[in-house]
């Protein structure tokens, strides 16, 4: 039952968060009707907490220059933005009780997963608009193999990082994890 609930939440979150980018023309029509021009300058990178929130996930993801920015933290779900430099990676990790969803907005990456950190037998190359689903317990890493920063967002269920987390670099993120 718990797995079905998490999968449903991930599905609904994926649909809701990607709806705007899939329907860009409708968004632009809405903004024209309202006499507003939405720009990336309107992006405010902060944790919006468990408040109802609607935003253009593509603009937010592409505007993020931090390694990790927690954008929304609910009771059972969390949205983070990531920017991985050329040649950089998310970092080899395993979440024992957390399922994870990634969506690539910009860049090219190599995704690796496996049952042990020494045997990442699932390997795929992905690019813009790809989704990556990582079951709890799987070792995984995502490496930027492109020639521009890799821009992606991640949904964790349940929550993985403290509310308001912003790590400018991977090194800063690792240090913060060790001090938790």
Report on this structure.
There is one protein chain. With 180 residues, the chain is an alpha+beta fold. The protein is built from four helices and ten strands. The protein has a six-stranded antiparallel beta sheet with strand order 7-4-9-2-1-10. Strands 3-8-5-6 form a four-stranded antiparallel beta sheet, with no helix packed on it. β5 and β6 (122-126) form a beta hairpin. The longest helix is centred in the N-terminal third of the chain and has 21 residues, at 2-22.
Task: Give me some keywords for this one.
180 residues, alpha+beta, 4-stranded antiparallel beta sheet, 10 strands, 26% helix
Approximately how much beta-strand content do the residues carry? 25-35%
Strands across the major sheet, in which order? 7-4-9-2-1-10
- The radius of gyration computed from the alpha-carbon positions, rounded to a whole number of angstroms, is 16 Å
What percent of the residues sit in helical stretches (DSSP H or I)? 25-40%
Main sheet summary: 6 strands, antiparallel
Low-confidence stretches: 14-30
What's the helix count?
4
The number of E-state strands comes to 10
Q: What is the average per-residue confidence, as pLDDT, rounded to a whole number?
A: 84
């Amino acid at each position: 039952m718990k797995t079905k609930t998490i999968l449903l939440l991930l599905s609904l979150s994926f649909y809701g968060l990607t709806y705007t980018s899939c329907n860009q023309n409708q968004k632009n029509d809405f903004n024209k009707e309202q006499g507003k021009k939405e720009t990336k300058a309107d992006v405010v990178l902060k944790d919006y907490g468990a408040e109802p929130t609607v935003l253009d996930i593509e603009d937010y993801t592409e505007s993020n220059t931090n390694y990790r920015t927690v954008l929304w933290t609910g009771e059972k779900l969390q949205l983070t933005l990531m920017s991985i430099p050329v040649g950089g990676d998310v970092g080899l990790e395993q979440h024992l009780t957390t399922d994870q969803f990634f969506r690539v907005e910009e860049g090219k990456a190599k995704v690796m997963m496996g049952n042990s950190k020494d045997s990442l037998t699932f390997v795929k190359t992905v690019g813009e608009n790809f989704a990556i689903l990582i079951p709890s317990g799987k070792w995984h890493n995502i490496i930027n193999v492109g020639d521009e920063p890799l821009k992606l967002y991640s949904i964790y269920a349940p929550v993985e990082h403290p509310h308001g987390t912003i790590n400018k670099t991977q090194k800063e993120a690792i240090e913060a994890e060790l001090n938790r």
